[in-house]
Amino acid sequence: MEKKIDKASKSQKRDEMIKSAYNIFYKNGFHATGVDAIVDCTGISKRTLYKHFTSKEGLIIATINYYHQITYGAISDYIEKSTLDQPVDRALMIFDYLTALVDSGNLDGCFAMNARTEYAHKAKEIEESCDIHVAALQQLVERYLTEGKISDSKSVAMQVIMLFEGAILRSKGTESSLPIKLAKSAAKIICSQ
Hints:
Elements: H1 2-28, H2 35-42, H3 46-52, H4 56-80, H5 87-91, H6 93-103, H7 111-118, H8 124-147, H9 153-174, H10 178-192
GO molecular function: DNA binding
Domain HTH tetR-type: 11-71
DNA-binding region: 34-53
């Protein structure tokens, strides 16, 4: 019984560290956030941090995985709760989800894309974690496009995700959802060809 409680406590502490680090990284960036800042904000010791994560990069990967979990789940739920009948329309709801985020004031962009950009060609494991997130979104879009009988749905899904990623970057830079709406319009054209 004591071992179960101890494991649950460790797991809870680990989850708290991930959530705290996630918020700090999202706000300040990855390179700009040192381990000391994370320790100060979480109230844990460096020893405890390194006990759960072998390095700062290990913690970053855990935060990317956390982001993927919450974001992919939120996007999937958003689409599933839709009353739209056409699978292609449902696939393109990723843009509507993003529009709602930006319009509500979330202008920090995609956590995974931010990490990928900061660690491009510097940390393979971080890049791979980011790529898993993007690949999962692409597969989600592809599933709906396949249901909608879109020919070469894999290639079209890749194009839609490229528009989605571009919309994220432009909306972050312009602090506006207009690029997202324009990207959705372009995605509709691609899907209708």
